Amino acid sequence: MITLIAAIGENNELGKDNQLIWHLPEDFKRFKSITSGHYIIMGRKTFESFPKPLPNRTHVIITRQNKFAPENCIVVNSIKDAVEACPKDQPIFVIGGGEIYKQSIATADQLELTKVHHSFDADTFFPEIDLEKWHLDFEEFHTKDEKHNFDFTFLRYSRKNK
User: Fold this and answer.
1) Any bridge partners for residue 114, and if so which?
2) What three-state secondary structure class fits 19?
3) Fold classification of 2-159 (topology level)
4) Ranges of each domain in the chain
5) How many Cβ atoms are within 10 Å of 155's Cβ, its own excluded?
6) Kind of pairing, strands 58-62 and 74-76?
7) Dihedrals φ, ψ of 29, to 5°?
8) Most buried one in 40, 104, 115, 121, CB count within 10 A?
9) What are the b/e assignments for 29-48, b being 16+ CB within 10 Å?
10) β-bridge mates for residue 61, sequence order
């Protein structure tokens, strides 16, 4: 099963200047609990935005740079190669960035989203979600508080008729 996991703003914003544009500790906790122990697929720029590789996950990085070879990571040249590098019997999580989401949404089985209820200045966006193709399975609203500057909702979609 291929799952795209992302936090997005009201207009599908993902980030700006290769950085997240909000800080939501509950979203980080959810991301960690969902992806721990699994293969995560990402673009090179997303990987480089981390201070270090994420623990307890196998990193599959898509890049066109031939000499890019971070330690303990799988490096490939396409989304197809990335999926083929993962075990067939385990969940796969696509974690960004915008271009990698665009390339993989057509083959995804599930979307795990955190919708941040605010509009942001961004340069990277999640692809539009065609609700004719996706069924909402789970929705959990959270209000802003002392640790979260924005209201947000956890959402899970599964592909219809796949």
Assistant:
1) 7, 154
2) strand
3) Dihydrofolate Reductase, subunit A (3.40.430)
4) 2-159
5) 19
6) parallel
7) -60, -45
8) 40
9) ebbeeebeebbbbbbbbbbe
10) 42, 75
Report whether 160 contacts 129 (CB < 8 A).
no
Q: What is the per-residue pLDDT across 145-154, written as a single tens digit (0 to 9) for each? A: 999 999 999 9
φ, ψ of residue 28 to 5 degrees: the values are -60, -45
With b meaning 16 or more CB within 10 Å and e meaning fewer, what string describes 80-108? eebbebbeeeebbbbbbbbebbebbbeeb
> Tokens in use for 118?
């605010």
Both tokens of 9, joined, read 């703003």
- Answer yes or no: are the C-beta atoms of 86 and 41 closer than 8 Å: yes
Q: Is 157 helix (H, G, I), strand (E, B) or coil?
A: strand
